[in-house]
Design goal:
This protein has about 130 residues and is α/β, with parallel strands linked by helices. It has one domain (about 5-10, about 15-120): Alpha-Beta Complex (Conserved hypothetical protein from pyrococcus furiosus pfu- 392566-001, ParB domain), CATH 3.90.1530. It is built from 4 helices and 6 strands. Strands 1-3-5-4-6-2 form a 6-stranded mixed sheet. A hairpin with a 2-residue loop joins strand 4 and strand 5 (about 70-75). It is globular.
């Protein structure tokens, strides 16, 4: 199996990150078998396109939510990597988990805090 799992849709709340916000997150290597995709549809023409990232970010976007890494954008790049026998991919990872205190187990309270309008203004987690 290439990926850890395949979903249809995002299980996490909307993060509200813009392309500029994503560009401030440094890419890191992630193994393909650690990723859960958020779409089941693969478009063959996009998969075979050489310039699929011409107008977008060079790095796929992933969100870490409740300990699981979800691939939000970049499925075609991830599949291309797998077809080339490359088990890792450079990905920008937004760590939603870092915004939630580890002792918080209330999903209602978590959803309420995450829906606050000030969320996108929070500083992005720094990588060591």
């Amino acid at each position: 199996m290439i990926f850890k799992g395949v979903r249809d849709g995002k299980p996490y709340p909307d993060h509200g990150l813009s392309l500029r916000d994503w560009s401030r997150i440094p890419p890191r290597q992630v193994r393909l078998d650690e990723i859960v995709t958020t779409t089941k549809v693969l478009e063959l023409d996009r998969l075979l396109s050489e310039d699929s990232t011409f107008y977008g970010d060079l790095f796929p976007h992933a969100v870490q939510w409740q300990g699981v890494l979800y691939l939000e954008d970049g499925l075609h790049r991830a599949v291309q990597s797998a077809l080339r026998n490359r088990p890792v991919l450079h990905v920008r990872v937004f760590e939603y988990d870092a915004l939630i205190p580890s002792g918080d187990t209330s999903s209602d309270d978590r959803a309420r805090r995450l829906d606050e309008p000030s969320l996108p203004d929070l500083p992005l987690p720094e990588r060591p």
